[in-house]
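User: Show me an example of a complex going from sequences to C-alpha cells.

Assistant: Sure. Here are the input components:
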Amino acid sequence: MRSPIPDFLDATLERHRYDLSGATADYIPDLAAADPTKLAICISTLDGVEYDSGDADFEFSIQSMSKPFIYGIALEALGLPAVLDKVGVEPTGEAFNELSLDKTSGKPLNPMINAGALTVHSLLGGEGATLAERTEIVRAGLSRFAGRQLRVDEHIAAGELQEAYRNIAIANMLRSYGVITDDPDEVVRGYINQCSVLVRVKDLAIMAATLAGGGTNPLTGERVLSPRVNRQVLGVMMTCGMYDAAGDWMTEVGVPAKSGVSGGLFGVLPGQLGMATFSPRLDKHGTSVRGAKIFRSLSADLGLHIMNAPEPARSIIRRDRRFVDAKGDMVRIVSLQGAIQWAGAENVMREITAPDEAVDVFALDMRRVYSINEVARRMVVEALRRLEDEGKRVVLLDPENAMGCSGQDSALPDVEIVDSPKELRDLDLRGLRRVRDDFADQTS
Amino acid sequence: MRSPIPDFLDATLERHRYDLSGATADYIPDLAAADPTKLAICISTLDGVEYDSGDADFEFSIQSMSKPFIYGIALEALGLPAVLDKVGVEPTGEAFNELSLDKTSGKPLNPMINAGALTVHSLLGGEGATLAERTEIVRAGLSRFAGRQLRVDEHIAAGELQEAYRNIAIANMLRSYGVITDDPDEVVRGYINQCSVLVRVKDLAIMAATLAGGGTNPLTGERVLSPRVNRQVLGVMMTCGMYDAAGDWMTEVGVPAKSGVSGGLFGVLPGQLGMATFSPRLDKHGTSVRGAKIFRSLSADLGLHIMNAPEPARSIIRRDRRFVDAKGDMVRIVSLQGAIQWAGAENVMREITAPDEAVDVFALDMRRVYSINEVARRMVVEALRRLEDEGKRVVLLDPENAMGCSGQDSALPDVEIVDSPKELRDLDLRGLRRVRDDFADQTS
Amino acid sequence: MRSPIPDFLDATLERHRYDLSGATADYIPDLAAADPTKLAICISTLDGVEYDSGDADFEFSIQSMSKPFIYGIALEALGLPAVLDKVGVEPTGEAFNELSLDKTSGKPLNPMINAGALTVHSLLGGEGATLAERTEIVRAGLSRFAGRQLRVDEHIAAGELQEAYRNIAIANMLRSYGVITDDPDEVVRGYINQCSVLVRVKDLAIMAATLAGGGTNPLTGERVLSPRVNRQVLGVMMTCGMYDAAGDWMTEVGVPAKSGVSGGLFGVLPGQLGMATFSPRLDKHGTSVRGAKIFRSLSADLGLHIMNAPEPARSIIRRDRRFVDAKGDMVRIVSLQGAIQWAGAENVMREITAPDEAVDVFALDMRRVYSINEVARRMVVEALRRLEDEGKRVVLLDPENAMGCSGQDSALPDVEIVDSPKELRDLDLRGLRRVRDDFADQTS
Amino acid sequence: MRSPIPDFLDATLERHRYDLSGATADYIPDLAAADPTKLAICISTLDGVEYDSGDADFEFSIQSMSKPFIYGIALEALGLPAVLDKVGVEPTGEAFNELSLDKTSGKPLNPMINAGALTVHSLLGGEGATLAERTEIVRAGLSRFAGRQLRVDEHIAAGELQEAYRNIAIANMLRSYGVITDDPDEVVRGYINQCSVLVRVKDLAIMAATLAGGGTNPLTGERVLSPRVNRQVLGVMMTCGMYDAAGDWMTEVGVPAKSGVSGGLFGVLPGQLGMATFSPRLDKHGTSVRGAKIFRSLSADLGLHIMNAPEPARSIIRRDRRFVDAKGDMVRIVSLQGAIQWAGAENVMREITAPDEAVDVFALDMRRVYSINEVARRMVVEALRRLEDEGKRVVLLDPENAMGCSGQDSALPDVEIVDSPKELRDLDLRGLRRVRDDFADQTS
C-alpha cells in the first residue's frame, strides 16, 4: 500500500506549482540563472525517514540557510559567552543586507543578518585561522548536520565574490568597529564559501530534523549540537530567522525557519520533524515565494504551529486503586500512562502527596509511561522519597526502567523495583493475591 | 504528605528576595508608592490547580499585562482581518512608550506596544461604543480569563489619567493618522481603565493557563478564545511581548510572556502551565527585576523552554504481531500507545502502509493511545481506508473511541469497531482464539 | 514713469499662474476650502517700500510662518540660554509633523518643527501664563513685526482645534518628557491661536524686511529684535526653515525662508529685502508650490542668493596722496570710500600701517564712506592710535562723523577732527595750501 | 608701524593655547602621532594678503577639508546635474562616518559625508579613469585653489590605507547600490590620496579666500570655480559642512566651514575673507577643539556672522538736485554712492521713476559708485530706458564706466555718457553753467 503522505505532498506542490510571482535573486549570476520552475519539498521525521516530492535531488547553494547551523557550530566550539560577546540575539526590523549594528557597540544585532553571520564565521577556528581552515570547518560542520559529505561549489563562490560588495562593506565596517579582528577580505571569502555549500531539500530536511531532535542527527545518530546550544539556535531562528516578516511568520506559520536567496527554505518543528522546500523565485524579503506558501499550507493542514495547544490529553493517571493485603496493610497502586513532563509530574505528585494516612504500601505502575523528562523524573522521585520518609513501603512496577532507578539510587534507597504484576503479587503483600485478577483485568 | 512543589517555589522566592535592584515605576503615583518588598509567584496547571508562594493574594493593577488578553478579546469579537488591518504583528526594537508606527501607514507595529494596545482597545464594542461600554467589555473579558469577577480600581485609574500625557500623545497621533477613529481622549480613558483592573498573581496564573490550554479557562471550563485566536495571541507574545529584549528572553527563558509596570509578569507554556510573578521594582525596560530572574530560574530548573526538544519518546507502536486465524487468514494486530501528533501518525502510517500482501485482517489496538490530534486522526483514517481499498478486513480495538469513528464514518464505511480483546476474539476470526492467551499476555 | 519692478513682478506671477500642481492642506477645513487660484507676491525694501502684485491684500492665516517671529520674541523675553535649554538648533531630515525630539533629552531639535514651536510658545509669558495672555503676547508681537495691528481669526482657530490631534499628540509627548511644564491642552490652544493670526503678503514682506534689517521694522522704525537675536532667528531659519528640503533650498534659492500650510512663504535677504508670496496649493513638504517656484525664479533673476559673492569692489581706498607742507612736514592724505566692514578696514589698516617714517601728518578723509561697522571702526581707531603712538599728527576729515569720534574719544585723545577740505587746509599745515587745488580737484 | 591684526591673532591664539581638551584622531597612525601642541591661524583677504600667527608653515594632511574643493572641481568638470544625480545636498544628523544613504536610492545625502565624498571622487576623470589620473586631478585641482603646487604625502596615504576599513565599507556599499560604478578599492585609494594632500593654514586660508571671492584665487587671479558652482559649494558647506553640529555652528559662528581630522579647519566669509586654523586635538565630532573655539571668538570679535545685518547704510542717493538750464529745460542730476545691489537699485529706481513731468534732462552721477552688481545694473538701465521712452534726455556721468555702458549699448541707444562734471557742463545744457559752482561744491 502506498503511504498517503507522498500523495499529500504531491498535491501540495501541484497546488502551488503555477504561482509565478517573485523573481530569482539577480545579484549573483548563478542564482539569477537558476531554473525558476524547479520545485521540491522534503519532510524528515526524527528517526530519519524522508518524504519528498518534486525535484528533491536537485542541488543548490545553501546561502543564508547556513547561518543557524554555523551559529550552532560556533557556539559549540567557543561557548555561548564568547559568541554572545560578539553577536546579539535581538531581532531587527531591517532587511537582511543592512548593517543592523548596535548603535553603541557596533555589535551585530543577531546571527541571522549578514553582519552577524560574517562575525560568527570569523570566529570559526579561532584567531588566525586561515581561509582554508574556516572553509573546512564549515563544510565538515554542515556535513554533520546533513549526514553526508557536502561540498563547496567553487563556481558559485567565484561568482558571488565578483559581486560581494555588500558583504565586503559589512565586513569592513565590522572590522572598523573591532567586531571582526581578522582580515575582512578573508572573512568574506570564507563566508561566501559557506554560502556556496551545495545541498538538496533532502539534506536540508535532515539538517532541520537534527535541530528538531535536540541536536542529534536522525540518520547518523551523531549528536551535532548539545541541547543547550540547539535550544539557542532555535530560539534565535524563532525571533530573527525571517528578518522583517518575523511577526507575520510566527503568527501564521509558527515554526522557526530560515530561507536562502537560492530559493531554499527550511523549518523546524521541535520534537516532530524537519522540513524543507526549494523554489528559486523570491519575494521582496528574499524568501522563496512558493516555499513560504507551501509552509503556510502545511502549517495549517498538518497543525504544525508551535503555539498550537496539544489536544486535551487523557489524564496521565490511568488507574488509582486501593486494596487490603493479607497482612491487613492498605496497598495503593497508581498506574501512569503517556509522556510525562512537568505538568504530568505535577499531576502525579498532587495525587500521591494528598494526605493519606491509611496507605501502608504505595505502588507506582510505570508500564504505560512511554517517556518522562528529567524534571518530571526528579519530581516523581522526590514524591516517592517523601512517602518513604513518612514510613510507607514504596514499590515501583517499571519493567522498562523508565524511572532510571536502580537499587543503588541514593534518592530512593528503600524503593522496591519489580518488573511485572506477577512480581508485585509475589512481594509479601499477602492478601494482594485476592485482588490480582481485578488488577490484571484493569491493566490489560 | 506535603507536595514538594510549594517548597520549591518558596525556595525560589527566597533565593531572589534580597535582590533590591531596579525601582518602582515613578510616573504613576500609585505605582511609585507600591511596597517594593512584595514578592509572589503562582503556577497554575491546565486543570486549574494553583501552586503559590509569597504575597499571592496581594492585588495590583494589571497594566500592560492586559494587552494580550484584550487583543484576544478583540480578535474574537471582530475577526482577525479587521484587527490586522489596524495593528500589525511585527516586533520593534523600540521601547514600549515610543510610537512605533509603520512609517507609511501609521499603523502600530504590534498590539503589545502602547500604540497597538490603544488601537485594539478603540476597536472594542465597535464604532461609537461609549467609554462605559468599552470598560465593561474589558472588565468582563479579563474576568473570563481569570475565572472570577475582576474590578477596575478607580483610584489608580484617576491617578494614571493625571499623568497620561504619553498615552494621550499616542492616541492623538493615531487619530491624526486615522488609525483610531473615535475620540482619542475617550480611548485613553478606557485604556487606563483597562490597565487599572486589579489582579493577583493567582488570577494571572489562571489567565496564563487559559492561554496555555488553548483558550479554555481551567477553572470554569469556559472557552474564552478559539484555538486560532489563542495561537495568534501566543505568537504575538512570543515575538513582541518582551519589547526590546525579546531575543534575549526567547533564547534564555523561552516562554511567551508579558510584563506590566505594576510589577507583574506572566508566562505561558502551551500545553503545560501558566505562571505569574509579582515584584514591583522594574528594570530599564519596565519589567520586574525579580520577576524576570525568577522566570529565568524556573525555565532552567523546570525545563520550560518551548524550544526544548522533548525527551526521546518510546515508539508510538507498542506491539506489531501476526497470527493465522482458523480460516487460515493472516491477522495483523498493531498496538499503539501515547499521544499521537503528526510525527506519531507518520510512524504508524509508515508501518501499516508497508507492502504486505500476506495480511488479510488488520487490527489496530488504540487502547493505550491517550491523545490523538485531528491531523494524526485523519492520517490514520486515510491509512485504514487504503487498507480497505486493498481488500483487507480492518478492525479497530478502540474502547474509549479515541479515533472518534462510528459505523457511519463515511471515510471508513466497513471498519469493524470493538471494545475489548474479547470482542476482537469473538469476531469470526476463527483460529485467532488460538493466539488469545499470548495476545492477552502481551497487552496486559 | 512706471517703475519696472511691478511689471517684473506681474510677469513673474503670470509665468507661474497656470501651474496647478499641489493641493491645499486637507486637514484644516478653512485651509482645505481656500481658493487655490489666489496668487500674490510682495517685496519690501529695508526702508519699508513695498512692491506687490496679485492678491496682495488677501488675508490668510500665518500658520508655521509665525514660528521664527515667535522664536525671536521668546528669545528677547527670556534670553538665549533659557530658550536653548528647551529647544535645540539642529536641523532634522524629518517632516514637520514628526516628533523630532532628541533621543536622550526629549528636547525638540529646533524651533521650526511643531514640537519646537509648541515648546517655544509654552515659554511665552513665563510659567503660569494663561491662554489669553499667551495669545495676546503672540498677537502683539507679530503686530510689531508687521507694523500694524493683526488679529486672530477665531473661526480658523476653532476649525484647527477640531483636528489638532497631531499637535495635541506632540504637546502631550513633550509634557511627558518635562519639556513643556504647563497644561499641554492650553499650549496647543495658544499655539493654534498663534497659527490663526491673519496676514497679507504685504504684512509678511514687512515682517521679513524687519529680519532683513537686523530687527528694526522698516515701517515703524521700532527695534523689534536685538541684532544678536535677529541673527539667531535667521541662522535657525537658514538651517531648519525648509524642513527636509533644506539643502536643496539653500543651494538653489539661498535665502533663509519659512512656509506655512495656508500657502504663504516668506524669505529674508539680510541687508536688502523681505519678500513673501501666497498660493494655497502645497507640495508634499507642505510648502506652496507656486510660491517656491517664484522664489527660485526671483533668486536667479535678482541674484538674491546669500552665497553670491559680491561683485569685485573698487578699492575702499580712493586716493592716497603725499604733500610737503610749509613747515616741511610730510603730510599724507588717505581718502576712503564705500561701506567698510572687516575686509575694508583690513585694507585701510594695511596701507596706513606700512612702515612710513617720512610721514609727519596723517589725514584720513572719510567723506565718501557711507557705512562702517563696529569692528571696522575699532580697527581704524586702533590704527590711528598707533600712528599717534609713533608721534605722528593725525587728522580726521569726517564731516558726517562716520567714525563716531569726538574730542573726548579716549582711544584717540589727540586726533584732530575737521569737517571740510577747507578746514584741513586751515590747520596750520603750512605749505599745504600749495597743494590745495590739486587736492580739491582729486577729491571733487 | 605694526598692524594690529597680527597682534590680535597672536592674542587670540594665546587665549586658547592651553585648552588641552580633545584628542588626536586615533585611527590613522600619522594623525595619532601628530604633535598636539601645534597651533596656527591664518586669515587671507580677497586680494591675497595673509595674516597668520603660530605654526602657520606647518604642513598637515588636508583630510575632509578637501571635500568642498573636490566637489567644486567635479561640478565644474561634469556639470551640476550629473553630480546631483549621484549625490544629494541634504544635511544629515548622523556622524560623518555613517553611511547616510538615501533609504530608497542609496544615494549619499550630501558631498560632505564620506559616502558623498567617495562618490564625488569616483566621478573625477570620467568612467574608467585610473587611480593615477584621479589622484593627479585632485592634486592639481587643490593646487589651483591654494595657488601653489601641493603634493600627496605617500606615507600618510599608506598609513590610512592600512586602516581604511570604514571607507572600504562605504565604497563597497555604494558599489552595491550602483552609486559608484568603478572598482571600490581604486576609489578608496584615490580618495585616501585626496585626503593625504599636504597643506598649511596659509594654503587653506587662500583656498578659503578663493571661495570667498566667488571662485577666483586671490593670489594667482585664476578663476577656479564659476560663480554658480562656487555658490553651490558654499551652500552645501553651510548646510552640511559641520556634520551634526550644523545648527549650532551656523547660529553661533555663522560662516560656512569645513574641518578635517588632521586638526585643520577653514571658514569662508563671502566677499570678505578666508580663514583657517590648525590644532590636532579633536572633539567627538572630529572637529579641532581649539580651532572651533578660535572660530567662535573671531566670529564674535570680528562680526563675521553671515547673518549679521549690515550697519544701516547711508542712502545710496547722495544728492538729487534740479536746475533750469539756459534753454529753460529742467535738468535733474541724481548722484549715487556706494555698492549697489538689488536693494540699492530699487532705491534709485524708485526715485527716478517717480512721476516727474517737469524734468527734461536726467543726469545720473555714478562717480561715487564703487560697485554695482549685474541685477542692479540691469534695473538702472531699464529705468533709464523708460525715461528715454518718455522723451527725456538722459546723461550718464560715469568716468570709471561702472555701468558698463557704451555708445553701442542696445538698451540705451541714446544715452549720453560723460566723464566729468566739466563735460556735463559742456553739453549744450545751456544755463547749466549758472549752477555750476553750486554743483561742483556739492559734489566735491
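The lines above are the inputs; the final block is the predicted structure for all four components together. The first strand of chain B starts at residue 40 and ends at 45.
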